Structures are given as C-alpha cells and as structure tokens.
C-alpha cells in the first residue's frame, strides 16, 4: 500500500514530507480530490486525526498526524538515510533545529501573517511582539549560518527540510526583501536550498513577497473553490496555496530581449570553446583570441566585487557561496561568461569576478532573477584603459598572484 498524504497540494506542512520522500526515494502520494475544509471534516478523516487538521499520512500500520512527526517517519523509512546525520550528536542537533524551526520561526511567522490575512484578531502590539520575536530567532539563525552552509554537518538533513518549508511561507507571503536583507546568511541559505533540484521539484519557483499584506477586513477572502465551511472553519492554508498558485500561473513565454539585439561578430560559444580547449600558451592563444573576437557593441565586460568580504571567514562556505551564485546564473548561460576568484591565503577571503554579458548593460532579467547580483558592486570595464584590460586578461587566465595575493579558488561560468 502506498503512503498517502492527506493535504491540499502546496500546503507547506505537507511539503516537508514530500521533500523528505524525494530525498529518500520513498513514494508518497497526495490523497486524490482532497478538499480542504471538507475532506478533513469527514468522520473517516477525524478517525485518523481527531483535531481535523492536515497533513495526515496514511501508512500500512496506521495514520500519523503532525507534519514534523510525518517527516521524521518518512526520513526513517530509509535505514541508511543521510537526513538524520551520522552520529548521535548530529541527531541531537537535527532535532534541536527542527524544534527551533517550529517554535521560534514558524510560530512567530504565523502570529505575524495570519491575523493580517484575517485568521485571528489583528492587534498591532501583538504584531510588534511577533515581529521582534521572529527577528530574534532569525538573528540567531543568521549567526549560525554565517559559518555553516547547512544547519547540521555538510549536507541537507531533515532539519533543513523543515526549516526551509517553514521559511518558505514567510518568504512568499510576508518577509519582503527589505526585511530579509537584515539576515543575509539566512537569505543565502534559503535561496541556495530552494534552488536545489529536489526542493525546486516540490516547492516550484519561489518568489519573494513584494509587500507586506494589508490587514484584511474581518472576514477572510473566500476561496474560489465551492467551499461549504462556515468562515470560522475556513483555515489559513485553504487560501494561501491558491494565492500562491495564482502568482505562479505560467505566463506566455516572451522572447528574451537579448535575442532581439543586432547580431554581433562575437559568437559566445566560440569564445567558450576557445577558453575550454586551450591547454597551453593560454595568454597567446585564448587571451589573444578573446580580444580579437571581443565586440564592445554587442557585449560588455563587468568587474564585480563582493560587498561583504569580512563575512567570508570560512573557506568552504565562501566557495559554496560562489558555487551557488554560478548555479543561479544558469538562466544566463546563453548570454554570459564569468570568472569568479576567491582570493587570499587566509580569512577573510575576497571574492572578485569578471563577467561578459550580451548587450552593453547587465541584462535586466539577470538582475531581477538572480538575487546574488545585489551582493556585489558592479563596475563596467573601460576597454580603452590598458590597466583594466590587463586585469580582465588576468582574471580570465587565473593569474596568480592576483593583485599580490594567492588564489584560494577560481570558478568559471561558461
Ligand atoms: N502542528 C500541525 C499544524 C497543522 C495545521 O495547522 N494545519 C492546518 C493547515 S496548515 C489545518 O489543517 N487547518 C485546518 C483547521 O484548523 O481546521 C502540523 O504541523 O501538522
């Protein structure tokens, strides 16, 4: 019998089990035709969970309710899962962060968001307490993530799955960029993980809230589906998944404006091939070839400089951060080439880069879609300045020392 999860699709508490199942290659199906406010009030459902809330997981040995308990069960279905760490102390830390996520993050997010959506009484002083308590928790999380890529150890664990699913509702519904930018390590953590393939498969494309929802009038917005429950029974998650689904409805695919630019004599793929295939005499072959083919009317070159180098205290975290940036630039592969240097023998490491973009400006879709862009200062290369040209050449060829310092790593986007 397959494991059946009773919840509306998009319910963030159900997502925890679905992401866990995907990591563990366990099959969990969503109950067919589940209707929030109706299916969870039937006698059969109340037998599985007397409080009538979702999610509930039906297993061959009986039902389980409470989303964290369900996620734990799904994690343990695979005996050699990595989601629970490999030592007793890892296990302790994973449980620590799951509880932290539920009690310090999720609970306060809910106290801030739901009254605004009309679920519960909106009281400004209560909101103030919720926001400041949430900030305290996010500050603590931010400190932990300053020197850790994941909550526990060096890979995704159940703690990350629970934390990301809880944060996702905040990022989507109420935590705007100006709020989250106070916690840059949390931002990086969140965007890096939601863009990892398994999270992305289950959570879809996550878009950050652009504004804090206004306080709703007394009655919550009615869901569009025919909904029988009285207003008091119309619960928060019935409305949100629809709102999120609406936001994410596929738009007709517009042509990228960069495809409409006049043709350039520089063929980006030719340059990428030359770069990749030149194994010797790099200066004479690849760098010379680059300047021969460079077309300043069809392309532009940009230096970037990480704004928060003093945070780069741990080498592997810094390298992961840059690796994440390059992954998120995937959307620009047809239009860009980049080199990112991680500089220095010891912390704090400096991160500097060079980017070649189609067009004479940094493409707008890159700035809009890749949040890392704003973590760097960007300066357009003046190719009439020989010193700047030489710096470009050195960055392309990973010259070492670079500006008097050793390179910890050099990464290429091509
Ligand atoms: N602590 C529970 C919370 C469950 C919960 O609040 N579920 C909401 C949807 S996200 C629900 O079923 N509400 C319906 C109701 O309150 O009747 C868990 O993590 O599973």
TrEMBL record:
First and last residue of the signal peptide: none
Gene3D superfamilies noted in UniProt: 1.20.1050.10, Glutaredoxin (3.40.30.10), Translation elongation factor EF1B, gamma chain, conserved domain (3.30.70.1010)
InterPro entries xrefs: EF-1-gamma_plant, EF1B_G_C, EF1B_G_C_sf, Glutathione-S-Trfase_C-like, Glutathione-S-Trfase_C_sf, Glutathione_S-Trfase, Glutathione_S-Trfase_N, GST_C
Domain GST C-terminal: residue ranges: 87-215
Superkingdom assignment: Eukaryota
Name recorded for this polypeptide: Elongation factor 1-gamma
Entry-linked PANTHER family: ELONGATION FACTOR 1-GAMMA 1-RELATED, ELONGATION FACTOR 1-GAMMA 3
Compositional bias ranges of the Basic and acidic residues kind: 225-251
Ranges of residues in domain EF-1-gamma C-terminal: 254-414
């Amino acid at each position: 019998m397959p494991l059946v999860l009773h919840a509306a699709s998009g319910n963030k508490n159900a997502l925890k089990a679905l992401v866990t199942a995907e990591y563990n290659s366990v099959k969990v199906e969503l109950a067919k035709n589940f209707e929030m406010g109706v299916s969870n009030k039937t006698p059969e459902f109340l037998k599985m969970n007397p409080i009538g809330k979702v999610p509930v997981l039906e297993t061959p040995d009986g039902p389980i309710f409470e989303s964290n308990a369900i996620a734990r069960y799904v994690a343990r279905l695979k005996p050699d899962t990595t989601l629970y760490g490999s030592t007793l102390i890892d296990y302790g830390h994973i449980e620590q962060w799951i509880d932290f996520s539920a009690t310090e993050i999720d609970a306060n997010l809910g106290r801030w968001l739901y009254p605004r959506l009309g679920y519960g009484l909106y009281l400004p002083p209560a909101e103030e307490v919720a926001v400041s308590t949430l900030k305290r928790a996010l500050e603590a999380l931010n400190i932990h993530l300053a020197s850790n890529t994941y909550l526990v150890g060096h890979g995704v664990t159940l703690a990350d799955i629970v934390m990301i699913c809880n944060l996702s509702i905040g990022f989507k519904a109420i935590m705007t960029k100006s709020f989250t930018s106070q916690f840059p390590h949390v931002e990086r953590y969140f965007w890096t993980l939601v863009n990892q393939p398994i999270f992305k498969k289950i959570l879809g494309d996550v878009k950050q809230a652009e504004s804090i929802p206004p306080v709703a009038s007394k009655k919550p917005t009615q869901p569009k589906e025919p909904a029988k429950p009285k207003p008091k029974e119309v619960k928060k998650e019935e409305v949100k998944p629809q709102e999120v689904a609406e936001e994410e409805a596929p738009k007709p695919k517009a042509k990228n404006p960069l495809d409409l630019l006049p043709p350039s004599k520089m063929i980006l793929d030719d340059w990428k091939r030359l770069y990749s295939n030149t194994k010797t005499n790099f200066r004479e072959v690849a760098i010379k070839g680059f300047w021969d083919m460079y077309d300043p009317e069809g392309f532009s070159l940009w230096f970037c400089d990480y704004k928060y180098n003093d945070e780069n205290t741990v080498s592997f975290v810094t390298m992961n951060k840059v690796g994440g940036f390059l992954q998120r630039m995937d959307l620009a592969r047809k239009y860009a080439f980049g080199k990112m240097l991680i500089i220095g023998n010891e912390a704090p490491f400096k991160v500097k880069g060079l980017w070649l973009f189609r067009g004479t400006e940094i493409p707008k879709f890159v700035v809009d879609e890749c949040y890392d862009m704003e973590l760097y200062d960007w300066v357009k290369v003046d190719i009439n300045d020989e010193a700047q040209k030489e710096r470009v050449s050195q960055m392309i060829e990973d010259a070492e020392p670079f500006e008097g310092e050793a390179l910890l790593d050099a990464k290429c986007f091509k």
